[in-house]
């Protein structure tokens, strides 16, 4: 392993700062409504003046938009802007209070998801809707076995054959005989897209409207590129609505982009003529700081404390390692690499979720072997997984339980019972400190926004007084405003002496946040690059090391 002492300064000239004075609400609303109030005969989808309220909360207010045949339309907005409500109306899960919906020039009234799907509208969820213990082919035909079931028995050979032909017609290459749970994240996502086409073909149209909800969350760059290639290849057979917090990706894949804010359509822009800053300003109602990653608050090398973590020749079989690294008090060490480079496994090894084959780890001067999460938790280490909903949270438990789960031993009273009073005090302190927006500490976590859910995970380790946090894509699936909040928390944590292993797929994020960046390739750390505030590396230079 070699260490680079200097790399060229990050070039962020592609970002254009726009003040709210340059984007007036009246202008935004005018732009948003131009061309949408009148139904277009060539529209794959036309939404006219849709409104929806829940008690005293207006979720959508007179929203109109078009999706043309073969078009990819981006849809962005902060959590709570109305995106989810709009998707639920389009898929028949909810009915609008007022307004009309047209597909391919025909007025529609969706009484449920099946009716919407047969009219060609399908949603590929962020949290994948796949039955893991069924094969890929069985997932494709689930609920639609039809003539594949003579005499009550499924002709599985015919099912796999027809399913495989369907995928080949779409240019998708997946082994459908495998259990869906054994497929990669990207393969399962492509399977859902293929299923949307199959349902549409069985219904009233062969040109579906496919809505993709945070489709790149959990995907690394190579898998994302494959997804984008498929979307572009299918433009002559489908239209797409692309919903994402990753603004650079929305701009890259979309033809036009709509911006929702507080239930209203506030902007419509051509993707080729906009910037991330314009979209951010429209979304949050203000121009974000040039210092989006708060690099001005980054601790310099002279401000960092003593070494708190030393990893020596850590190895997992022949898949990851051997690698060595160190971490100082208050330091953020970024970790980057392409799909399959081993960066996720590195994080899991450090936290004991994957037991290394050999090597040693020293935490705060104490040598410890990372054989389990409980072992590493006792050293003061915390872990935030990439998939927060399935691995990081108890969605049907309250904020209180999710926050306190890491300090159960601390809450034990004289009797073998939890000190509920202490639990509530610790949770309230974390909620207040991290500004978690929740009606109560008894609110179920599943009811919180993605950004606040992530804060709950951070709050867990704040309550545990962790000194080292291993974070895998900590901003995955949260909006631009919530990301800024997370970055602010990270900076504050470092000034309190907390150190971080910052694993991320978004290179610009790692560049902006890290003091140093470890680059992984085929399971090994091939370089550690310095990234001080005044001399950041470029994405191009990191990519050259990654590949």
Description:
It is a single chain. It contains 19 helices and 21 strands. The protein has helices spanning 25-33, 83-90, 113-118, 136-141, 156-170, 185-202, 221-233, 247-253, 276-284, 343-350, 373-378, 388-392, 399-404, 408-411, 420-434, 450-463, 480-495, 507-513, 539-546; strands spanning 2-4, 43-54, 57-68, 72-76, 98-103, 106-108, 121-124, 209-213, 239-243, 256-261, 264-270, 307-316, 320-328, 332-336, 358-363, 366-368, 381-384, 468-472, 499-503, 516-521, 524-530. The strands form 4 sheets. It has a 7-stranded mixed β-sheet with strand order 1-21-20-14-19-18-17, sandwiched between helices. A hairpin with a 3-residue loop joins strand 12 (307-316) and strand 13 (320-328). The two termini are 16 Å apart.
Q: Which features would summarize this protein structure in a list?
A:
single chain; 547 residues; alpha/beta; Rossmann fold; 7-stranded mixed beta sheet; 6-stranded mixed beta sheet; 19 helices; disordered N terminus
Short description:
This protein has 19 helices and 21 strands. By secondary structure, the protein is α/β, with parallel strands linked by helices.
